[in-house]
Amino acid sequence: MPHPPAQADGERVLADLNALRAIGAWKTGVHKPTFSEPHARSIEWLANKLPEAGLTAAVDGIGNVLGTSSKAGPKLLAGSHLESQNHAGWLDGPLGVIYALEAARVLNPDPNVNGAVEVACWCDEEGHFGQFLGSRSFVGAVSEADIDAARDRNSGRSMREAIAAVGLAGRPRLRAVRGRHVGYLEAHIEQGDTLESGALKIGIVSSIVGIWQYRIVFTGEQNHAGTTRMAIRKDAGLALSRFCVAIDATFPGICGPRTVWTTGRIELDPGAPSIIPGRAEMLFQMRDAEASVIERLEEKLHAMAAEATARGPCGVSVERLRTGAPAMMDAAFQDAIETASAELAGGKSLRMPSGAGHDAQILATIMPAGMLFVPSIGGISHHWNENTDDADIVTGANVFVETCRRLLTR
Predict the structure, then answer these.
(1) Which of 341, 378, 408, 346 is CA-nearest to residue 185?
(2) Which listed residue, 47, 232, 279, 374, has the most CB atoms within 10 A of its CB?
(3) Are residues 44 and 183 both part of a single domain?
């Protein structure tokens, strides 16, 4: 009687995740910005682990790690990232890397599996220096000029300087070999509460949202806060506040069912308690899985700015800073995750869009791609309290390994 296929070693998966958690530990999470000392140590840790799966490790000139296999047959690429947001969670990124490593350890030595899992760790998914620079470099969408221009969003340090500081200066950047991989699979914590609230174990990602970001500037007149009558003021801060309220009143009538928008940063100039701000700036972001929805909202945003300028007393300008196209996940990958979930997670799965951006949307531009989610306790992410129950982590690992097996043998 044949033995059932080998599954993930849950204790090994948890041990690896906790080993990474100890690097750059901060409160109950981690602090390992891109190219920080803890991030560099995490990259080194992974490169030393990849041979356990029969993989040859390479770290390239932008900080990507790639583990490749010489085994005959098709190759499936899998992975995520190891850097974190500032003072944030321990699973955002590392979960997907360790699942990929575990799938390679289980499946690559198995003579009944045709082909192998190759492991990728993409640099700067969290955007300390730019937008998905590691995965975009791999697909050929980052130039040397882009790297020259990249600066750390907190310190202003150049990316070239950071690359040199971790000993990667002069290394070539790895590029995807078209046709080598049957596709790319990534696992991640959900970063929301849909799975937990529905007592579900696996999210099958159907699409990844597009993210469009804007700088909206309000131009008024700086003046004395005590001597300038209210009737003649041109308060840029007040104009900004009214614009935010107007967005929240207008967008619900024209958005999609899962559209979200956020004013993540507001700056007043000069920002003193006794001076009426003459200039105000807000960074505004919209997300949706349908590009047409975001385009409709952008058109309305410009119309609102024109109306506010005409009405006065402050001028309003809108500048698009970032455009990230939505990405659909491959139907065959979704089916494979669902079948594996039926076998190993009691069928407690849900097809759902991702409201956050992931490297999978970049890889999807050159190959079939898929993603699976595991629950986030309380829906918390990008915070040091981010967590997932150990049992859910192990269930997710088993579903991931089985999904990889199916994608390699279909």
Answers:
(1) 408
(2) 374
(3) yes
- pLDDT of 1 > 50? The answer is no
Q: Give the residue from 99, 145, 149 showing the smallest Cα distance to 120.
A: 99
Contacts 24+ apart (CB under 8 A), 98-101: 98/13, 98/16, 98/17, 98/20, 98/397, 99/8, 99/13, 99/187, 99/396, 99/397, 99/400, 99/401, 100/185, 100/187, 100/400, 101/16, 101/46, 101/49, 101/50, 101/52, 101/53, 101/67
Q: Is the peptide bond before 353 cis (omega within 30 degrees of 0)?
A: no
Composition of the chain by helix, strand, coil, percent to 5: 35, 25, 40
Position 323, amino acid: T
User: Domain span at residue 310?
Assistant: 211-324
Helix axes 10-22, 94-107, angle to 10 degrees: 140
Which residues are within 8 A (CB) of 376 and not within 5 positions of it... i.e. 6 or more apart?
A: 189, 190, 191, 192, 193, 195, 196, 386, 387, 388
Residue 100's H or E segment, with its range, is helix 94-107
Rounded Cα distance, 246 and 391, in Å: 45
In the numeric block, which tokens belong to residue 396?
Answer: 């997710």
Let me know if residue 5 belongs to a domain.
no
117-176 pLDDT, tens digit per residue, is 999 999 999 999 998 999 999 999 999 999 999 999 989 999 999 999 999 999 999 999
Cβ-based neighbours of 241, under 8 Å, separated by 6 or more: none
Neighbours of 73 (CB within 10 A): 12
- pLDDT of the residue at 324: 80
Two structure tokens written together for 45: 């840790």
Residue 311, number of CB atoms within 10 A of its CB: 11
First to last CA, the chain: 23
Backbone angles phi, psi at 83, to 5 degrees: -75, 165
Q: What is the pTM of this model?
A: 0.90
What is the number of structural domains in the chain? Answer: 2
- By C-alpha distance, which of 119, 93, 95 is closest to 174? 119
pLDDT of residue 325: 80
pLDDT digits (tens, 9 = 90+) for 237-293: 999 999 999 999 999 999 999 999 999 999 999 999 999 999 999 999 999 999 999
CATH label of the domain that carries residue 254: 3.30.70.360
